């Protein structure tokens, strides 16, 4: 039986790159996004490129608690994944003292609460099985405060704290937990920015780092992966 990976927000950027990387290894894929046409296009593309890979998709808005739980139930009908990648996220620029109040709630529900509910949906099974690897896709914004980061930066600091706590809780049960903290990565989030592409990290490099961390023996864990553009932060 093939191994499986769940990647939230898998139709673009880092999530999509991770799906492609694990598909090359024959993993069964589970993913979601808010756009069904993009999900279907991803499924067709990945299964066409990697005949051994199977892609299972569901339209879901993970900022909504009930939809996050529904997606977890959808996955559980088939399996408990070997790898869970919490990647769903949004970025709304602004200052904490000036941004519309609803930006904070929307960002925290999308970036943090979705991770909380989805992770909790699988941890009991991971503990019983005594295996699993959970990746949280954070950001260097969770390490360094910066102006105009607003709610996004707060959510990524919280994501790092969540993942560190999770690491301590699941350590005795054979479950590995890794924070991934990329700098500016060339994805749709940076569309329209007047900077050359080579100033950004390649999404495929982040995916390769995730694969490498997963591929270690069960005796070792990479707790944090920090990746920055070679020429420095943007």
Automatic annotation (TrEMBL):
Recorded E.C. number(s)?
A: 1.-.-.-
Would I find Repressor among this entry's keywords?
no
Task: Write down a Pfam family by its short name.
Answer: adh_short
Q: Where are the transmembrane segments?
A: none
- Give the EC class as a word: oxidoreductase
Report keywords, A-Z. Oxidoreductase
Q: Which GO terms describe its molecular function?
A: oxidoreductase activity
User: Domain of life of the organism in this record?
Assistant: Bacteria
Q: Which PANTHER family match?
A: ALCOHOL DEHYDROGENASE
By sequence similarity, the record places it as follows: Belongs to the short-chain dehydrogenases/reductases (SDR) family.
Q: What is this protein called?
A: SDR family oxidoreductase
Organism equals: Cyclobacterium jeungdonense
């Amino acid at each position: 039986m093939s191994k499986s990976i769940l990647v939230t927000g898998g139709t673009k950027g880092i999530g999509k790159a991770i799906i492609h990387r694990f598909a090359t290894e024959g993993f069964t894929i589970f993913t979601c996004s808010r756009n069904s046409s993009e999900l279907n296009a991803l499924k067709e593309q990945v299964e066409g490129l990697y005949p051994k890979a199977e892609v299972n998709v569901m339209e879901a808005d993970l900022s909504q608690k009930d939809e996050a739980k529904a997606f977890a139930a959808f996955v559980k009908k088939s399996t408990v994944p070997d790898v869970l990648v919490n990647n769903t996220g949004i970025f709304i620029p602004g200052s904490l003292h000036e941004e519309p109040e609803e930006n904070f709630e929307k960002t925290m529900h999308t970036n943090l609460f979705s991770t909380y509910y989805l992770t909790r949906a699988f941890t009991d099974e991971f503990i019983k099985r005594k295996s699993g690897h959970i990746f949280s896709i954070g950001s260097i914004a969770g390490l360094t405060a910066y102006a105009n980061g607003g709610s996004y930066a707060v959510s990524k600091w919280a994501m790092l704290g969540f993942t560190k706590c999770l690491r301590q809780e699941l350590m005795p049960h054979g479950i590995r937990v890794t924070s991934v903290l990329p700098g500016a990565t060339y994805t749709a989030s940076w569309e329209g920015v007047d900077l050359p592409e080579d100033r950004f990290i390649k999404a495929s490099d982040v995916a390769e780092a995730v694969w490498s961390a997963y591929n270690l023996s069960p005796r070792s864990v990479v707790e944090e992966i920090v990746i920055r553009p070679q020429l420095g932060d943007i």
